[in-house]
Write a structure and sequence with these properties.
homodimer; 391 residues; alpha+beta; MutS, DNA mismatch repair protein, domain I; Trna Endonuclease, Chain: A, domain 1; 11-stranded mixed beta sheet; 6-stranded mixed beta sheet; 27% helix; elongated
Chain lengths: 391, 391
């Protein structure tokens, strides 16, 4: 048994028995003051839940887990924090409050993506825009075929059977892109009408289009990600829709656009990442829009825990190593906003640590997503790879 | 070449050349009038796109695909209908207008689910509700363990390691269910406060809870579907969280709740079905709420096409067989409402045909979902199995 002592005057829960102090000190729990250890709320709950801790007050009254938790009931997302803290600790790894982070740990990596530039030849094609379906049809067979084969713009003929049929279908992103480039003339609609039809139907369309254009202009091929549960899938510059040998070109990356104005339920957000994972694609999160200057307050971080991970011959500790990640503690029923996430990621950059998103579901099972920044030469936007991981 | 003749007076596009008439008649296109064939808009587009059709008016002017399509531009979801019609035809199968459906074809099947009844013994337990995390903690070790082991209510100890830890966590559905049953007393919150916290956070919570309670009361175990991208996963009556031999019990069904008041983007809807498919679970759609009397107007169906499928020795045709499905033609950027879907499904029941949802993505690739009704004895709600299929 570990004896926890509630000190109402000093407002805190202390460990004072020498054997307990040594044991908790070796495990990197709490902070030492004059030979005693002061525990954080999550540490208190963990010691009571898992390490046979018992809590008493000065008068010798005992407090159950819930009696003790009631003291912290006003703490924001107490259980989200406790359950993700617990899971990390249960893996034999060390977690400390993010407030202890100091300076830049230089432990982030940057995924480098190839830059490029789309060069469109001079051409002019006509099309009809179908507002109700957000599609444009080009019925000039030769022009539609060339557009498809050279730039992979539109779908000529039939999907995966381009020889079948004579028309080409341009999706709403391709339509606007080509009209803006002065290559496509719509016989029955103006650009502004197409854009307002798109804005009316598709939420955060402007942000979706910004991401589409950003990658297209760098030479990437950007097509619907419908089959993979995301907004777009991409192919690297130079990709072609024409079968090489017996093989179709496969995309390896999907992009999900997260508008800074949007708020997403964590379970919906996780669902998109899951589909990408199940089809073995790399999931890219796009946060379009120019970054405002985000101020990081190192004394009051938004993130929850400083995570120490493993090293070759054991685990990292505050004594012998440096933290590896910052944990963002969440539950499946919470919401996350685009702007909020952008700010949290800025904080990670400040401390030179990668973000480990930890989601505790309704059964207290924790799922982890590791977030790594992407460098896409020439782009003003923020992109991140998100990877489902088991730390 | 098939010659299509635009008749402005009779407002339609006709085929009159005898060889063309025979060919199209054999393929079950259009409707015969005095030896000529009148085509529907989708048939016209198909013949022009795929079967080398050319369109002319009385004066001998020629019309391209787009020129012709312009006549139908006001038709609702013209391309959604055309592209899904085309895909079905491209498979060598026959599709006709849903308006031709007559009477009840008796071709639906019903997935029968076991009925049951949850019997809870007399007990009373205490808990603390954590509003910010929508979880309840029970710290009476024996009571929490029994609740978990006997009814699989809550998560005792640690997920997949119940021996680790002493507390039990009840999710928001379990919390409300047990309070309503008079088995759980929350020391710090009233039922109404718990319900309003849930309503505030979770969209359509009342419908979500209705589905939860409906299956729980029939003896099913209902837990979070977070890992499978849906609202719930279920286990059949009698399921236990206790490992049998070396095997965990695996759920085979997930439930997604679609409120009649909700509207879902098709791509979001498809994403949920895709995750379930990728983890080999049966996807159940729940449409809670009492059904209003839905009137079906057989002359003006909501659904798009009457689909003839295959049979042992070939394909079904309007001559030799009966239709198998009703097609609901959609694109990935459309929305579908719960009430709208309920009405469309009612129409399928009326005609005795199953619904084949056909979704044309931005590249005109079509994905099919087959919807089959479930019978759950005692339930007032509508449930359907949705299966990704390649017809």
């Amino acid at each position: 048994m570990i004896k926890l002592e509630l000190d109402r005057k000093k407002k805190g829960i202390w460990v004072r028995e020498p054997a307990d102090v040594t044991s908790l000190q070796n495990g990197f729990y709490g902070s030492m003051e004059h030979g005693n250890i002061l525990l954080t709320p999550e540490e208190v709950l963990y010691v009571m839940d898992i390490r046979n801790g018992r809590c008493f007050d000065e008068a010798g009254n005992t407090y159950t887990f819930n009696d003790t938790a009631l003291f912290f009931l006003k703490n924001k997302k107490l259980l989200a924090r406790y359950l993700t803290y617990k899971d990390w600790r249960d893996k034999g790894l060390i977690a400390r409050y993010a407030e202890e982070a100091e300076g830049c740990y230089g432990r982030t990596s940057l995924k480098k993506y190839k830059g490029g530039k789309l060069e469109l030849d001079k051409f002019a094609i006509d099309g009809i825009f179908f507002e109700d379906d957000l599609l444009t049809i080009v019925d000039d067979e030769a022009a539609g075929k060339e557009l498809y084969e050279r730039y992979w713009l539109g779908q000529f003929g039939t999907y995966k059977a381009a020889h079948r049929g004579r028309i080409s279908k341009l999706d709403i992103f391709e339509t606007i892109f080509l009209v803006k480039q002065g290559k496509l003339h719509l016989k029955n609609a103006k650009l502004s009408a197409v854009e307002s039809a798109a804005n009316e139907r598709i939420k955060y369309f402007e942000d979706m289009y910004a991401v589409y254009e950003d990658w297209r202009q760098r030479g990437y091929v950007v097509k619907t990600g419908f089959k993979f549960g995301t907004h777009f899938r991409i192919y690297f510059p130079g990709a072609s829709p024409i079968k090489e040998g017996d093989e179709w070109m496969h995309s390896r990356h999907v992009i999900h656009v997260f508008s800074r104005k949007n708020k997403l339920l964590i379970s919906e957000w996780a669902r998109a990442i899951r589909v990408a994972h199940s089809v073995k694609k790399t999931f890219i999160l796009g946060l379009p829009g120019k970054k405002g200057k985000i101020k990081v307050n190192p004394k009051r971080p938004r993130l929850d825990f400083l995570l120490y991970h493993r090293k070759k011959d054991g685990i990292e500790t505050p004594k012998t190593g440096a933290p590896r990640y910052l944990m963002y503690s969440l539950t499946e029923d919470e919401y996350i906003g685009g702007e909020e996430l952008a700010r949290a990621l800025e904080e990670c950059k400040y401390f030179g640590l990668e973000m480990m998103m930890a989601i505790s579901d309704r059964e207290s099972s924790v799922t982890y997503y590791l977030i790594t920044q992407i460098s896409l030469p020439g782009s003003d936007y923020d992109y991140y790879e998100i990877e489902w991981t088991q730390p």
